[in-house]
Amino acid sequence: MDDPRLTPARPDLAARYLEGKVKAARFADGTTFEVIAPLAPLRDAPRTDAMLQTEALQGERVTVYDRPGDGWAWGQLESDGYVGWLPDTMLAPVGPAPTHKVAALRTFVFPGPSIKLPPRAALTLGTTLAIARIEDNFAITHDDGYLPVQHLAPLAHLEPDFVAVAERFLGTPYLWGGKSSLGIDCSGLVQVSLMAGGIRAPRDSDMQEASLGTDVPLSHIAQLKRGDLVFWKGHVAIARDATTLVHANAHHMATAIESTHAAIARIAAAGSPVRRIKRL
Q1: How far apart are CA 166 and CA 168, in angstroms?
Q2: Pairs from 94-97 (Cβ < 8 Å, separation ≥ 24)
Q3: Is-above-0.85 flag for pTM?
C-alpha cells in the first residue's frame, strides 16, 4: 500500500499522476505554488489544531491539488514529497528561481539597508531566496528585503560536515514536526543537516531508516563513526564519534549531546532497543 504521507490521494481527489494506480472520484493536475511565510505548518487536516506533520520553509515549492476556499490548501511538497494541508495565505504563485540559501542558523530580513531598522521577518537555516543584487553588506531580494550577506550562501554551496550542522542546533526546543531552529524533532534535525550537505533525505525516521546509507551490524555499536545514524522505533540520532550522539529528543525537550551508552540504556529501559545503524 502506498504511504499516505507521500501519496496525494483521497477518496474524493488524487493527483493526476496517480490515475490508474489509486481509486478516487476525480484526478487533478495540480498547480505549483511557493511558500512565502518564513515557516508554513503542514498539517494532517485543514484545522489549526490538527497535528503538525512537518514544516515548509520560505521558498519551497508545493504542488497544490485542492483549494476549497476555507483558508487551506492540500498539496505535496517538492522537497521531500510530504502531503498535507497548508494555510492558503502562506502560498503564492511561483516567483523568481532561488539563487541563495540561508546558511546561518537564523537571520533577519530588513526593510532597508540598515540593521537598526525593525526586521520584517526572521528566516531559518536552509531557506531559499532569489537575490536580485548585492550591495555592500546586504543581499537584496526581488521584493526589496535586505539580508546580511554574511548569513547567506550560494544555492550550490554544500556544508562539508553535516554533523557540525546538527551540532549548531544544540539547545533548540524539541517540536514534533519541527524543522527549524525555533523547534525541531529528531528526523527534522537529520533531514535539515543532511540537506545542508547536499544529501536529500526523507522526512520521517522510518523513511530515513529504510532509504539512507548501508547497514552497520548492531554488534559494532561501540565502533560508531561520525555521521552514523542510530535508529530506534520512532527515533533517530546522529553519531558525533564512537561515544557521543547528537539528537533532538523529548527526554531533554531539546537538541542535546548525550553519551551513546547512556542514550541506548535510557531508551532501552523505556522499551525501545536500538534496531538499526546506517552509515552514509
Answers
A1: 5
A2: 94/32, 94/33, 94/34, 94/61, 95/34, 95/130, 95/142, 96/130, 96/132, 96/142, 97/130
A3: yes
